[in-house]
Amino acid sequence: MAYPKSHNPFADDEEDDFRPKRREFEDAPGDSEMSEPERRQRYLQQEVMRTAQSAVDSSHRSIGLIYQSEKIGVETAEELVRQGEVLKRADKMMDNMDQDLKTSQKHINGIKSVWGGLVNYFKGKPETKPPPEEPKAYQANDRLQTAVSSSRGNEEKYEASHPNLRKLETGGFGASASIDDDSSGNKGYPQNRHLREAHQTLDNNLDEMCNGLSRLKNLGLGLQSEIEDQDNSIDSLMNKVDKMDLKIHNTNQQIKNLK
């Protein structure tokens, strides 16, 4: 005995699967005159356009995040350059201190020697030292400089993609347009004009994402290289500081013995 359709547990599901959702898509004029297959076809068309629009919006957000990451990377690189400048000046300062200690050691040796004292007496005016040279401006490694230069060219794009500055134009691919548009496709894109625009925009965004990720990779490698260079500079500076501390201690000890 066949059950009535109202008792078939699968009957309602079969009909609901393709039924347009009233809360997501409003009926266009003339929808009430459509047959059920036409309404299902229209619903599927709307779903295709909604999915395409969602993919395009997502790609725009991804590009914005890439631009934001580039901006942070450039700011980090600039901070590393300032830190490198401080390290270079500190290294130069240690060299000057070492030279001053060598001069002090010569004076101490002269004082300890009677003949040295006589020589200093008849020698006359002490030799004047030239003023210390100002260190040249610090330069980051070539890889980082190239990466920063490439990423700085996208600052305007970052501002364009920032939601608090200016929102990118992502809307309007005609979600209610007919899939059976007579426009001819090209390069494998759909024939529907609105859907074709969505696919082309998505392809362009994917290309830009690829380029942006490549720039981020170069920026990251440049930052890593700069950090390694500065780590070596810090190690060298610490060795000089340890040697300087030992020399100062020995000089102080010699001065105490002269008293």
Describe the model.
The protein is built from 6 helices and no strands. It is mostly helical and 259 residues long.
Estimated helix fraction: 55-70%
Q: What would the principal axes of the Cα set say about the shape?
A: rod-shaped
Strand content: under 5%
Return the average pLDDT rounded to an integer: 75
Q: What's the order of the H and E elements? A: HHHHHH
Give a count of the beta strands, DSSP E runs of length 2 or more.
Answer: 0
Q: Termini distance?
A: 124 Å
Radius of gyration: 37 Å
Instruction: Enumerate how many helices there are, as a single number.
Output: 6
Oligomer: single chain
**Describe the biggest sheet?**
none
Low-confidence stretches: 1-26, 164-185
Helix vs. strand class = mainly alpha
Q: Which terms would index this structure?
A:
mainly alpha, rod-shaped
Please sum up the structure shown:
68% of the residues lie in helices and 0% in strands.
Task: Write the topology of this structure.
Layout: H1 11-16, H2 36-112, H3 114-123, H4 142-152, H5 155-161, H6 193-258
Helix pairs in contact: 2-3, 2-4, 2-5, 2-6, 4-6
